Amino acid sequence: MNRKEELITRWIDGELNAETREEFDQLMADDPEFCSRIRKEAEGIGSKMRSEIPADVQPPYPDFFNSQIQKRIREEDRAGAPERAAGGISVLWWLRSPLTWGTAALFMILLLSRNDDGISGTGSYVVSTYAPDPGVSVERAEYDTDAQATVIMLTGLERIPDEVEVKGRDITAYQPSGSRGGGLFYAGQDQLAYVMERGIGGVPEILAR
Amino acid sequence: MKRRGYIIILFIGLLLMHGWSVASAQENDAVAPGEKSTLNTKFWGALVHASNSTPKKPVQKELALRLGKAFKQYKTFELLGQHTQDKVFRDYVNWIVPSDELNLEFESKGPAKGGGMKVLLKLWQKKKVLVKSDAVIKPGKPLFIAGPLWREGRLIFVLELRE
């Protein structure tokens, strides 16, 4: 095998290092005819292989191929074992950390407090609140244990002018009418107090009183 | 440190799952639309004016005490109107003490797991919805919604479930 053949063999095997790569490139540049012939031969070999071996043929010895991959994985696992062992010690150390147990305790407190004040407790509670007007916000929506009541406190509300008379009646019965949320309000024995309808956008409107 | 972070995230995840399961349980507590509440209860609602002046028609003493604890800046509570409703059907709209200025709309969403009634509330000021809220009201534990300021005080809606 001469130097040219050796370089070509190394190129085909993918074993060119930086030094031999430079030598091989120089060889290709000095002898373009040789380069062209080699390329044609390489392409010919590729075409012949593709024509002789169908694409759907299983590679030879697939079990061996798989076993080699598994062997490689096992070897890499063994190489990483000391690092994981160190991690195991770290987990033990972590379990001894006060922060861990503090977090666990906080979790349990939250779990139990939710049961006490919420679903199975004695107080009423707010599940969700939403103020559609961006100028209005819900300052507070919670069960007040002192007052034994749920309080929703809004801020940013438009003040009702003093000259407006806000007054209601003592309603003893309400009879829904229609499907839009209107109805008849009674005060006392069959005494009609209000007739309510809903306008555009569901706005409540008192039609008669 | 990285593992610690993972475990904290795990705890938070478990907490969220717990909240979700509770919410799902409530949602699955189904009652057919229009069916009367299985609790033999009635709603009582009131529109109250909280202030520091002498009221013409004060609310009941026990309610006044509770309102005083919830809204400490006010000492007196005047009853402007009240409403007793003993037939509250699921998914029907009900109103508390209607007026031209302020209206509280509520729909019963059926009995809540653990007692009480699930309600959907909307507080209107004229044509504007001030707040929407999902809440659970239990007998003897009223809901107070603090509305707009009026004269020298504030308007408050009270909604209570009575057995």
Descriptive notes:
The complex is a heterodimer of chains A (209) and B (163). Chain A starts with a helix and ends with a strand. Among the domains of chain A are: 3-52; 167-209, no CATH class. In chain A, 47% of the residues lie in helices and 22% in strands. Chain A is elongated and about 120 Å long. Chain A is built from five helices and eight strands; from the N terminus they run H-H-H-H-H-E-E-E-E-E-E-E-E. In chain A, helix 1 packs across helix 2 (18-30). Chain A is of the alpha+beta class and 209 residues long. In chain A, the strands form two sheets. A four-stranded antiparallel sheet of chain A has the order 5-6-7-8, with no helix packed on it. A two-stranded antiparallel sheet of chain A has the order 2-3. Chain B starts with a helix and ends with a strand. A four-stranded antiparallel sheet of chain B has the order 2-1-8-7. In chain B, strands 3-4-5-6 form a four-stranded antiparallel sheet, with no helix packed on it. Chain B is 22% helix and 44% strand. Chain B has one domain (42-162). In chain B, a hairpin with a 2-residue loop joins strand 5 and strand 6. Chain B is an alpha+beta fold and 163 residues long. The chains are: A alpha+beta (209), B alpha+beta (163). At the A-B interface, helix 4, helix 5, strand 1, strand 2 and strand 3 of A face helix 1, helix 2, strand 2, strand 3 and strand 4 of B. Strand 3 (149-155) of chain A pairs parallel with strand 7 (143-150) of chain B.
Brief summary:
Chain A is α+β, with helices and mostly antiparallel strands and 209 residues long.
Q: What's the topology here?
A:
The complex is a heterodimer of chains A (209) and B (163).
Chain A: H1 3-13, H2 18-30, H3 32-52, H4 62-95, H5 98-117, E1 125-130, E2 137-144, E3 149-155, E4 170-171, E5 173-177, E6 182-186, E7 192-198, E8 204-208
Antiparallel strand pairs in A: 2-3, 5-6, 6-7, 7-8
Chain B: H1 2-27, E1 42-51, H2 61-70, E2 76-85, E3 93-96, E4 102-111, E5 117-125, E6 128-137, E7 143-150, E8 153-162
Antiparallel strand pairs in B: 1-2, 1-8, 3-4, 4-5, 5-6, 7-8
